[in-house]
């Protein structure tokens, strides 16, 4: 057995309800020292499991025979019960064992205790079918309120900054929330410049010629400026050197530059390990860093495997396993991030 094949965990291990398979506890021929040993430590002492409870060793191999307490009555023991059978009684003895189970059928009195209440929304009561129908119809009606309603004919804005021409409603006698006009000429809506193709949306009924009662979308940019993290505008592509340096905050990256930066900063390569006899494998990556991580898979079923992994130099790592691997049995990928 390879004594170097050890994985050190300085943390609790949570298998998320998974099973421990082909796992054994540390074997001893005599009780080990319990100095600084935490309560709950379990060992294999000559084939029997023992647990240290903080004061003494407890032999976990002793069999416990559960006492037999036959139930005097259990109406639920049949495969199928008649009616709506409810659990009505459970009796236990002084040891906490259940000795009796009783039941009763659901009655009309139980049913009428679940009553209708159309007046409120509650997790306790229920609604009638009429209440549910009215609620859904009202909900759909509210959803339709405020829908964007196109107004034919378009909208010609004012030619004077600070003023506004009232739009003309077509689908209604008055302006309603959600009406939309396509702007057909350049001009002004109050102090907001607009151009052909922009949209004017009423955000209140009876908006008249008050700019605050309207929303403008697809608004034209009056001046083209350099782009920032808060302003749309012109951009410039970074050079290769600027991309690799990573210090310029005013230029952007292309896919080619992004790939070049990632290739220079993140290293990754895959090796096949296993020769039928070895339990130790030294892999040379040549990346001049100690900060290397790994993922390892068994090739036959692509199952991920944890192995003992140790960087032994800035260019080499050592992998140890417990038993010899067949030729190319494992596929291991090394990854590193370079400064």
Describe the structure using short key phrases.
single chain; 339 residues; alpha+beta; four-stranded mixed sheet; 4 helices
Arithmetic mean of pLDDT:
83
Number of strands: 19
Cα radius of gyration in angstroms: 38 Å
Structure classification: alpha+beta
What is the CATH C level class of the domain at 264-337, in words? Mainly Beta
Provide structural commentary.
This protein has 339 residues and is of the alpha+beta class. Among the domains are: 115-144; 148-220, no CATH class; 223-253, no CATH class; 264-337, Immunoglobulin-like. It contains four helices and 19 strands. It has helices spanning 108-112, 129-144, 240-245, 255-265, and strands at residues 27-28, 41-45, 48-52, 57-59, 85-92, 98-105, 149-150, 179-182, 187-189, 192-194, 199-202, 214-217, 266-273, 280-284, 292-298, 303-304, 308-311, 316-320, 330-337. The chain is flat, with a radius of gyration of 38 Å.
């Amino acid at each position: 057995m390879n004594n170097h094949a050890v994985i050190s965990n300085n943390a609790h291990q949570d298998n998320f309800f998974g099973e421990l398979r082909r796992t054994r506890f540390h074997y001893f021929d005599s009780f080990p020292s319990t100095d600084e040993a935490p309560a709950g430590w379990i060992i294999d002492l000559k084939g029997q499991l023992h647990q240290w409870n903080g004061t003494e060793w407890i032999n976990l191999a002793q069999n416990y025979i559960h006492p037999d307490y036959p139930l005097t009555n259990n109406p639920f023991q049949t495969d199928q019960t008649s009616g709506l059978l409810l659990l009505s009684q459970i009796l236990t003895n002084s040891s906490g064992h259940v000795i009796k189970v009783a039941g009763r059928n659901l009655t009309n009195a139980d049913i009428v205790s679940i009553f209708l209440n159309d007046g409120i929304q509650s997790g306790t009561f229920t609604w009638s079918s009429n209440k549910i129908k009215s609620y859904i119809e009202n909900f759909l009606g509210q959803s339709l309120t405020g829908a964007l309603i196109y107004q034919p004919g378009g909208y010609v804005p004012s030619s004077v900054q600070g003023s506004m021409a009232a739009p003309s409603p077509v689908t209604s006698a008055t302006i309603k929330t959600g009406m939309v006009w396509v702007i057909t000429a350049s001009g002004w809506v109050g102090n907001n410049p607009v151009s052909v193709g922009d949209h004017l949306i009423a955000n209140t009924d009876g908006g008249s010629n008050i700019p605050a009662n309207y929303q403008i979308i697809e608004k034209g940019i009056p001046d083209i400026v350099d782009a920032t993290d808060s302003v749309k505008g012109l951009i410039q592509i970074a050079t290769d050197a600027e991309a690799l340096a990573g210090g310029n905050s005013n230029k952007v990256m292309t896919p080619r530059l992004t790939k070049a930066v990632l290739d220079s900063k993140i290293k990754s390569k895959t090796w096949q390990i296993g020769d039928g006899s070895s339990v130790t494998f030294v892999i040379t990556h040549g990346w001049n860093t100690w900060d290397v991580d790994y993922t390892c898979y068994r090739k036959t079923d692509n199952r991920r495997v944890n192995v003992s992994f140790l960087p032994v130099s800035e260019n080499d790592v050592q992998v140890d396993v417990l038993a010899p691997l067949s030729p190319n049995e494992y596929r291991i990928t090394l990854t590193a991030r370079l400064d």
